[in-house]
Amino acid sequence: MDALLGAAAPLLAEAFTLWGSPTTWLEVLACALALAMVLANMRVAPVAWPLAIASSLLYALLFASSRLYGEASLQLVFVAVSCWGWWQWLRGHGDDGAPLRVHRLTARQRALAAAATLAAWPLLAVVLARGTDSDVPWLDALPTVASVTGQLLLARKAIENWPVWLAVNVVSIGLFAVKALWLTVILYALFAVLSAVGWRAWQRLAAAP
Questions:
Q1: How far apart are the first and last CA of the chain?
Q2: Does residue 104 form part of some domain?
């Protein structure tokens, strides 16, 4: 990771100062790609997935440089899940064998997703607390595990991905504020709004004949 951060040194240079803290070119580029990704997701456009891969790789470097190791590792998981999600949106099928479309989870599926997320949170927090020099292991772990849940639900075009992302974005605002990543704080505040908009948009798509 040190070698990667060294190679990314030009991108880690300061672009401007925001509320007294430096904002790097890496954060600017990662934010722009992530915003384009969310807008594409709202339109159920497959181009969202290559945008997700590119922004995740950039954010992995950004978070590692800020000692947010849970979030940095999550970005690598995102890359793998994004490759799968891209395939799902292009070639995937629903439980009925028809091409994958926007749909709702069953009550049992929602309960399983929530239980898995809540069970994984303390496990990851302990790993971060004991295995890294993270100074915010619990706050880092919660949006990390919930983001995996959201990404998997998004890949399968489940409407419930949007409320999960809404919760992730709200918690992440606090996390990134602690780290003075102010441009990313602004981005995640916008993401929270877009999550609510995307939720409504996908509800309409699911209701359409």
A1: 49
A2: no
The position carrying tokens 């945008």 is 51
pLDDT per residue rounded down to tens, the chain (209 residues) = 455 556 556 666 776 777 777 788 888 899 899 999 999 999 999 999 999 999 999 988 888 877 777 778 878 888 999 999 999 999 988 888 888 999 999 999 999 999 999 999 999 999 989 888 888 889 889 998 999 999 999 999 999 999 999 999 999 999 889 888 887 888 889 999 999 999 999 999 988 76
Look at residue 139 and tell me if it is in a domain. yes
How many distinct structural domains can be found in the chain? 1
pTM, full prediction = 0.84
Query: What tokens does 28 get?
Result: 């600017």
- Domain ranges, residue 200: 2-92+111-207
- Asked whether residue 124 is domain-assigned, the answer is yes
Query: What does the alpha-carbon distance between residue 166 and residue 117 come to, in Å, rounded to a whole number?
Result: 15
Q: Is residue 167 part of a domain?
A: yes
